[in-house]
Every structure is written in structure tokens, then in C-alpha cells.
Write a structure and sequence with these properties.
The complex is a heterodimer of chains A (about 220) and B (about 375).
Chain A: H1 3-18, H2 21-25, E1 37-51, E2 57-63, E3 70-74, E4 91-96, E5 99-105, E6 112-114, E7 130-139, E8 145-149, H3 152-157, E9 162-165, H4 167-175, H5 188-198, H6 201-212
Antiparallel strand pairs in A: 1-2, 1-3, 1-7, 4-5, 4-8, 8-9
Chain B: H1 5-13, H2 15-30, E1 41-42, E2 45-52, E3 56-57, E4 62-70, E5 75-81, E6 84-90, E7 94-99, E8 114-124, E9 129-130, E10 137-146, E11 167-172, E12 180-187, H3 197-210, H4 215-219, E13 224-233, H5 245-248, E14 254-259, E15 266-268, E16 271-275, H6 281-289, H7 316-325, E17 334-337, E18 343-345, H8 363-375
Parallel strand pairs in B: 1-9, 3-10, 12-13, 12-14, 14-16
Antiparallel strand pairs in B: 2-4, 4-7, 5-6, 5-8, 8-10, 11-13, 15-16, 17-18
The chains are: A alpha+beta (about 220), B alpha/beta (about 375).
């Protein structure tokens, strides 16, 4: 799902959570949440080898249930990666209390897609036993818990493999002045976009035509 | 194809003028005036601007080139660099200018390393009617100029040195919301911890000599933004960027780790590894990490059926249904591997996802997948 599509989804659920938002926002008066902020979840998936038919090795992933994933909320643009996975890929559900804010699939981190072998043969690829990765999501300050399911069927039955509580990250973000932070390196794209907005093409056309002694033909 | 917010904003700002021009044209027609048959109708204006070198450092000269695709017989091409009018070309499909040598330090702020903005504008003249909004086309890009090697400082001030920006935009064509943001990482096997000239040259090759030479990608080239990350990554395990990338570049969509040694590459999620020099890896792994395509060869990989516009299927019936929907013969569906339960595809060609050399096609299903991905931007 692209960011714009995701934003549409968020927009559709805004009325539901509007009344609940002050519970999260508290009495803060500065900008703390918008559609262009990110929540970054640092995860480690353990890849367990299992025998597949034909004697091949297939990998399946799981999380260490005792792990406490690091979570950061940043005043920075999130990814807009379109949905690029498979129909049976893992599912992420974001909730505020019992209310589901959004649900989306993400690409299975245990899936290693290997370069075709060359004639003459390459060294066989050996996937690692674990893989660290980060999940970046648009942050709207409308959810406080993330639930990870290994596949859509598990999401249907409500059997998450991991639950991530965002409350500490939210508190820290508010303490740091939320969106008003101005010394964060990842805000650099916002700077470029501001410069892009300042470009006045019509004024440049006028300047160029004047320079070459022509009139606007339009 | 995406339409950037700034472009839409500019177009709407011209609505009143366009409306007046349209009214004047209608009045002229009603008055019995006839058009000069020698002047054309302009219905298409496109311009793609790019720059070289793709990674600009202190003291470099910068060449901007604009390639124009239009049915206007006569037109101006204006080139602006950092807000300065630098060049005009008259009715030539390729227009370029070289500026510099450039100084990486901003004399007003003393910041070392800064973004550079350039714009190519196409303005038809001597036409009878124009159906293009505002009757113009513009391509606004950003790149960056950094401090000299080996540190390549970017956005650094003497007072706040810790704010050096490690993510350097080498070709930003759209706001990040509207683009596929691909970050290049230098693997440690380039034999250094700082960015190497070989790596930066390899990056330029991947952008201009691989992506821009593939027809379908070139047609949607403006949907890409490219960046270089100054912190080295690891080439193993499908390319593992420095973990700081998670918070330095939350906006990124894809991580590409280029390496110097040759070994079998792979993709995992939205990251992939590839040799810096030309091999089949960069295009093939881009098929996975950028476009979400599955492998089409019989081998030790992980097969999956993409949820939208799949290029392989777990079930023969689904392959045949797609063929029927597209008006293609169901007999093309073949079981190309018995691994992992058996998988099906609808061709017998050597495609990018079967191999990945520049001459390899995407195939029907691969093309449909790429078109879908670009349509999401």
C-alpha cells in the first residue's frame, strides 16, 4: 500500500479515534503528530530451518518472545513503499486500545531471493539464522500498540507472534517536542521539499524570455 | 506516471491565463479567422533533466542536460542552475550546459556541502493550439555538492559539526512522497571506510547505464530518487546497511548495497546486494527489492506469488486464468520448478527474473508488474 493509499485509510478512521486522541496528546500544545512522521521498529527475526518436501530446506521466521524491540518515533517523512509482498505474507495491526487503526501486510523477512546461479556454479547461498531489520510506518499518533501476525490466517484468529507497546516511545517523542524538533538529520528531505516549493517556474520563464528578447507566446 | 504537487500547483496558477487564451482563440474562430496550417497543434511536451557527474564534490564542474520529447515543431529550452538562467536552446531535443567549478561552501552560511537545484523548462512557440496545461513542461531536480574527498562533508557547519548529513541526495526528482527513494550503500569490501571514487562511479553507472537504459524504467524515470549513504554497509546476507540508516533515512524505500568482490547476491525485503561493476545482479535484484517480482528460475531460492500482478503462480489454474484475462494462450503456462510444491509461469523466455542481463526482457508479466508499481507512485 502506498503512502497516499495508507493516508486515505488513516483518514477514514480519524473520526473513530478523534475522541480518543486527547488521551494520547495530553495537554501538549505544540505540533506532535501529522501524516509525515515515522515510527521505526527495530526487530530481529529468527529464521528456523524446516524440512520441506523433496528434502529441500525452507525457512520460517519467528520473534524471540522475550525480546523488547526498540521503537523510535521521528519527525521525519516515512517510506511510501507500495505493497510488494505475497498474499500470505505477515500482517501488522496497529491499535489504540481495542480499536484497530490500520492493518497492512509487510514483506516476509525470512524470504531470501537469490541471484540465479552462473554456468559453472556459484557457491550455494546460505541464509543466516537471524535477520535484523527495521519496519518504518507512517505515524499519526492514533495508535499505541502494534501486533505482528505471521500470516493473514493468524491475524483472523488473533494470534500475534509479537506485541509492541509504543507508549514509552510516544512519551519520549512528546518530551522532545514532537514535530517541532528541528535538529534531526532525517528531516533533510523536508528541507529539499521546501526548496522545491519555492521554485517559481513562471518567474523564470519571464526572466529567460526577457533575457533573449522574446515575448511569451502563450 | 506521477504528477508532483509543485507541478500541479503551477498548472492551477495559470488557469485564469489559460482560460483567457482559450476565450480569445474561440473568439478568433467565431470571427472567421482560420489557422495557419503551417503551425502545429501541441499536444505533448516532456522534458527529462539529468546531471553529470552524478555525485558532485567541491571544485567539480556540473553538466546539466535536458532531453525533450514534444510534438511542438518550435520551442525554447531554458536551463536554470541554482536559480540562475544559464542556457537557452532553440528547438533542439537535447540541450546542455556546464557550470563551475563549484564551491561546496556556502559563502553566506559557511555551511560545507549543500543541495543544488536545477530546472529545465520547455516552452513551445509558433503554435496554433496547445492542449498541454500552461503549454510548458518543467523538470526540477536536486543534487548535492559535498566537501572534497575523503570526507565528503554535507550540511556541516563549524558550530554544529554533528549535524553532518550522511544521506546525500544525488538525484532527487520528486518529493519523497511521490517517488521510489533508493539509497546506495558502499560495502566494506571497497577496501575503505570512506566513500571511494570507484563506488561513486559505479553508482552513476547503475543509475544512468542500467536503469535509464531500460525502456520501461526510463519512461518512468522521474519516479525515482537516488541517494548515497556515507556510512558503509556489509555485502553479506543481501546487503546489510549501517543500522543508523533506519533513523537517518526513514523515507527510503529501497537499500542497494554495492560491493567490489563477486559472489552470489540476493534480496531480502526492500534491500539487496549487487556487484558495483556490470553483472546481472543489479537488475535482477532490483526486480525483487524495487518491483516485488519473484524468481523465474529453477533453483535454491524462495518462491512466492506476488499479491498483485504476479509473475509466477503456485497454481496452474491461476496462471491460466491470467492468460485468459489477457487474451494470451493458456498453453504458455508451464511448471518451471518442482521445488516448494511446484511453481508456474507463462513464458519460456530468458527474462530479467530468470537471469538479469541488460538484454533480457522483463516478460509480459514482469512488465505488467512494473507498470503497476509505477502507477502507485
Amino acid at each position: 500500500m502506498g503512502l497516499r493509499a495508507a493516508m486515505s485509510l488513516f483518514t477514514s478512521v480519524r473520526p473513530i479515534v478523534a475522541a480518543l486522541a486527547p488521551l494520547v496528546l495530553g495537554s501538549m500544545t505544540w505540533a506532535v503528530a501529522g501524516d509525515d512522521e515515522s515510527v521505526v521498529v527495530h526487530l530481529v527475526a529468527y529464521l528456523n530451518t524446516v524440512d520441506f518436501e523433496g528434502g529441500e530446506i525452507q525457512y520460517e521466521f519467528g520473534f524471540d518472545p522475550s525480546a523488547d524491540p526498540a521503537v523510535e518515533i521521528l519527525p521525519c517523512y516515512p517510506t511510501n513503499q507500495p505493497f510488494l509482498g505475497a498474499a500470505d505474507d505477515p500482517v501488522l495491526v496497529a491499535q489504540l486500545g481495542p480499536t484497530t487503526i490500520f492493518e497492512r501486510q509487510w514483506r516476509d523477512p525470512s524470504r531470501f531471493l537469490i541471484e540465479p546461479p552462473d554456468d559453472g556454479g556459484d557457491e550455494p547461498f546460505t541464509p543466516p539464522s537471524q535477520v535484523a531489520f527495521q519496519l518504518t510506518l507512517p505515524w499519526t499518533n492514533e495508535f499505541d500498540t502494534l501486533f505482528f501476525y505471521p500470516d493473514p490466517a493468524a491475524a483472523e484468529t488473533g494470534s500475534p507472534v509479537l506485541e509492541v507497546d509504543l507508549s514509552s516511545a510516544i512519551s519520549l517523542y512528546l518530551e522532545l517536542r514532537g514535530r517541532d524538533q528541528t535538529d534531526v538529520i532525517c528531516q533533510h528531505p523536508e528541507t529539499l521539499d521546501a526548496l522545491r516549493q519555492e521554485v517559481d517556474t513562471e518567474a523564470r520563464i519571464d526572466e529567460a524570455l526577457k533575457e533573449i528578447g522574446e515575448v511569451d507566446p502563450r | 506516471m506521477s504528477s508532483s504537487v509543485p507541478k500541479l500547483a503551477r498548472a492551477s496558477g495559470r488557469r485564469a491565463v489559460v482560460a483567457l487564451v482559450a476565450l480569445a482563440a474561440m473568439a478568433a474562430i467565431l470571427a472567421g479567422c482560420t489557422s495557419d496550417p503551417s503551425t502545429p497543434v501541441v499536444s505533448e511536451i516532456r522534458v527529462l533533466a539529468q546531471h553529470s557527474p552524478i555525485f558532485v564534490t567541491d571544485g567539480d564542474s556540473l553538466t546539466i542536460q535536458a532531453d525533450v520529447d514534444t510534438d511542438a515543431g518550435n520551442y525554447f529550452v531554458f536551463l536554470f542552475v541554482e536559480g540562475t538562467f544559464e542556457e537557452v536552446c532553440d528547438s533542439t531535443p537535447s540541450c546542455s550546459v556546464t557550470v563551475g567549478p563549484l564551491n561546496a561552501e556556502d559563502p553566506k552560511t559557511n555551511v560545507i556541502g549543500r543541495p543544488i537545484e536545477y530546472e529545465a523548462i520547455v516552452l513551445p512557440y509558433n503554435y496554433d493550439r496547445c492542449t498541454v496545461p500552461s503549454c510548458q513542461a518543467s523538470d526540477i531536480n536536486f543534487t548535492a555538492i559535498t566537501g572534497p574527498a575523503p570526507n565528503y562533508l554535507y550540511g556541516t557547519t563549524a558550530t554544529v559539526p554533528e549535524l553532518t548529513r550522511p544521506v546525500i541526495p544525488i538525484l532527487q526528482q520528486q518529493p519523497t512522497f511521490d517517488a521510489i527513494d533508493l539509497v546506495f550503500h558502499q560495502a566494506t569490501d571497497y577496501d575503505a571506510t570512506s566513500l571511494q571514487a570507484d563506488f561513486l562511479s559505479d553508482v552513476e553507472d547503475k543509475v544512468y547505464d542500467v536503469y535509464l537504459q531500460r525502456e520501461l524504467i526510463a519512461a518512468n524515470f522521474e519516479d525515482f530518487n537516488f541517494y548515497v549513504y556515507t556510512k558503509p554497509g556489509e555485502a553479506d546476507n543481501c546487503g546489510v546497511p549501517d543500522p543508523d540508516i533506519a533513523t537517518d533515512a526513514t523515507f527510503r524505500d529501497v537499500d542497494a548495497v554495492l560491493h567490489a568482490l563477486e559472489f552470489r547476491d540476493c534480496a531480502n525485503g526492500a534491500r539487496f546486494s549487487a556487484e558495483g561493476y556490470p553483472t546481472k545482479a543489479f537488475l535482477h535484484e532490483s526486480g525483487h527489492a524495487v518491483f516485488g517480482l519473484a524468481d523465474e528460475y529453477d533453483g535454491d531460492t524462495s518462491y512466492f506469488e506476488p499479491a498483485v500482478e504476479p509473475n509466477i503462480w503456485a497454481e496452474k489454474a491461476d496462471c491460466e486464468a491470467e492468460q485468459t484475462n489477457e487474451g494470451r494462450p493458456t498453453s504458455a503456462c508451464t511448471r518451471f520448478t518442482a521445488r516448494q510444491g511446484g511453481w508456474w509461469k507463462a513464458h519460456a523466455n530468458t527474462t530479467v527474473m530468470l537471469r538479469g542481463f541488460m538484454a533480457d526482457p522483463w516478460g509480459f508479466e514482469g512488465e505488467e508488474r512494473l507498470e503497476w508499481v509505477f502507477a502507485q507512485q
